[in-house]
Amino acid sequence: MVKSNHKLGWLFASPYVIYTLIFFLFPLGWSVYLSLTNWNLISPEYDFVGIQNFTDMLKDERVHAAFWVTYKFMIILIPMALVCSLILSLTVYSLPKFKEVFAIGFFLPYLASGVASAVVARGLFSYNSPVNEWIRKTFHTNIDWFGSPTLALMILCGMITWKLSGYYALLLLSGLESTPKEVHEAALLDGVTGFKKFRLITLPMIYPQMYTVLILAIGVVFHIFTEPYVLTGGGPNLATNTWQIEIYNQAFTRLSAGYGTAIAVVNALLTFITVFIFRTLLEKWGTKNGW
Prior knowledge:
Elements: H1 2-34, H2 52-57, H3 61-94, H4 99-111, H5 114-124, H6 130-139, H7 149-178, H8 181-189, H9 194-205, H10 207-221, H11 226-231, H12 243-253, H13 257-288
Helix pairs in contact: 3-4, 3-7, 3-10, 4-7, 7-10, 10-13, 12-13
């Protein structure tokens, strides 16, 4: 009977197992192998070069830039997205009516095309845009939004925050809605209100949703491509050169597919390490708060 149950379990799990083998494990193994070659994406022949691609990365300033840009995004983007999504979720939660309508409205930017958003942003911050014309007339100065490394990075963080906040807010809202009302009533009786209530009660109660949002946001940071590719191409001075842009440029522009694959492998490894560190810290915080 036990063996029969095991077979039935494997039968039901087999579609996912087969999918994982075909679309994840096999491509992953093939990528690791290609990262050790000098394949140029076109020729059917390529040579095994060992760890040469990885040692070359140690001297490549473009790869160095992608490394630091990713963590700059993490420092700026994740707090922005978290704060905005918290504000949105708390706002919707406090509404007496039409919560669903507002929740769907805030979610819509997540469905917007990254290319379309980037084109709109380019028009908004272009030299002849109404925004720049007003700034020139009012302050007698001209701002080169995409020519400044700091401003370009901030604009991209703002765009991605706008896109993700509604989706993350829905996740946090589910946690708020599942919190027993008795907990809030007890806090009110004890005189715990305002930010103190938010810090001591609301945040710990939505820990599972916060955990999910933060892990998802970290994954997004390591896979940013569309917005900087359309708006800045990784510039100025590699200030927005993400891992994905560098992988694309190496593999499809310079036709150094072996080197590009090696960069992708390093990106995957750094993503795993960063997620593991954050998971460990978040789980310690959750354990401290009773989870």
